[in-house]
Please model this.
Amino acid sequence: MTLAADQNFSQLLMLVGRLNYTWTNTESLFIHLIAGLTDTDTEAALIIFLTLNTTRARVELVERLVKLERCDRELRGRVLEATKLMMRQSALRNRYNHCIYSFDKDAGMARTILMRISDRKDRLKIGQTSDVDDRAIEEIERTIATLQDVNSTIWKIVQDYGFPT
Model:
């Protein structure tokens, strides 16, 4: 592997760690939304949060709670926008969390290989590859920045509505 490819791969590993941290930290803020939307404390909300074992289930719960008639329209819009923006980032997060890495010594390039089978009409698509290059690095950095914005948005909602912290 060339020096540039090695540096990109090292940077990728660091960024995937930051991506995971940013994602889980932001997702954990749903505890405060659940507490506020169900009029309970964070301890009970934590139990609800941990009982749901996927991000999608947690997002669906928060979205359903905020869609209740008793919820303020502005609150509903703000929460739904935040969850929508967060879930748009899930494809990239899933790609880097559910892949293996390949190194082509001849090309001097690292690649990710997606660990998923896609069923098509009359065939299977297996092992979609992506280069670990500057474009991939920039894409992860943008996703991290977007998740940080979602994090700030959720904290602002929690503060604005006096939800338990």
Observations:
- Strands lie at 99-104, 109-114, 117-119, 124-126, 129-131.
- The longest helix spans residues 134-160.
- The first strand starts at residue 99 and ends at 104.
